[in-house]
Design brief:
The protein is α+β, with helices and mostly antiparallel strands and 132 residues long. 18% of the residues lie in helices and 45% in strands. The protein has a single domain, classed as Lipocalin (Beta Barrel). It has 2 helices and 9 strands, in the order αββββββαβββ.
Amino acid sequence: MAKKWVGLPVMVLAFAMVFIGCRNNNGVDDSINGTWSEGGISLILQNGKWELRSNIPERRGTYSVNGDTVTMTASHVYFVWAGGWVTQGEAQNHPDSGGLSFDSNFATLICTVNGDTLQVEINGTTRTFIKQ
């Protein structure tokens, strides 16, 4: 009878790892880490942080995962006039920004992941990124 009780915790652990998945210390799903591309745009996801690039960096921030939904929140926008990354407050208060706000540069995006595809809706248009 004692041998059955030893095997039970091992089976529960194996079930949890296979069906629930492994998460890192930040509670972020490691399986979506990597570069996702759509046209000339790259979305880089790495351990809860993301960066959007075309020819130059554009936006970056943090993300969280809940099932197949990824919520990305922008923390910085890349402005050439500022010499690099700026926060929302810096962008809004800079005289060369033209009053640009984070809202017009999508502060939060909701994405859906399905295998090697990640769909993002931006300004009413759905864009599909493929994992590289």
